[in-house]
């Protein structure tokens, strides 16, 4: 066994065999799922005519494309130890704005505009990566500054106005339902494939193991022969590409975009990613846990709104979940080390 494999095995061997499959083991992995199911039952009993319907099911599972892509982009950098990329939401928004402006205002072909929008988002990831990895600037400073710049650019190119008018046919890349009336849109399945593919890479490929290894300890990773800086830079680029694709799909879904909307995803994005550390793999950022967390949040917000809560309840719910999730993540990380 190589030094790298030995170190990876030591990192992953965090729970003694005698403690596995006890109450603590199960609760640390599945408690959030149990609470999620309890919420579904509670809201179904309280509002059976509105919550326990196919329409509500479609909203919960089919309406979270934006948050799934944003959470996946944030996961890329967090997993390699870069806390945290604040520019993902603004990069997502700029991509959605660019495709809308280029197609609607400048009459570019919508597919060419989509490619340009994703390329610009990828370039933002490259710039972030170079400043953090090569120059050594603090991640939060770089990405927070970049977030502000991108938001300003998006407002500038739209003249502070929502842009709409993308072709109806283009919307099918996010809304197509395979001919099943009232079924889930293709955007749900794209997000599902994204997260499952991400999970496969992390669990079963050398790249994924190296990403985890770098996130755990850069110096040990470097001594073990891992190209640490290349993986860190690649994580920023991947985050940019995912944000760009998500922005294009979001614009297709709504027929355009409002530059100010992207910032509303910041809180739920962080809440989903951190809550995911209390699902399936306690104390570890993981795509499947994050995906479940996205739908947990959507269920809670929709249920509360159907019970009569006003729009402010979403911020309260997301904020409370984020505090709880970070607390759980801290406790679980402490227990697993």
Task: Report on the architecture of this protein.
- It is a single chain.
- This protein is mostly helical and 337 residues long.
- It has one domain: ABC transporter involved in vitamin B12 uptake, BtuC (Orthogonal Bundle), CATH 1.10.3470.
- Helices cover 72% and strands 1% of the residues.
- It has 15 helices and 2 strands.
- It has helices spanning 3-12, 23-46, 54-62, 65-79, 88-105, 110-135, 139-158, 172-175, 186-204, 206-216, 218-223, 228-254, 266-275, 287-306, 312-336; strands spanning 163-164, 256-257.
- The chain has a two-stranded antiparallel ribbon.
- α4 runs antiparallel to α14 (287-306).
- The longest helix is centred in the last third of the chain and has 27 residues, at 228-254.
- It is globular and about 55 Å long.
- The two termini are 23 Å apart.
- Mean pLDDT is 88; it is low at 6-18.
- One of its GO terms (molecular function) is transmembrane transporter activity.
- Its main location: membrane.
- It holds the Pfam family BPD_transp_2.
- It comes from Leifsonia aquatica.
- Keywords: Cell membrane, Membrane, Transmembrane, Transmembrane helix.
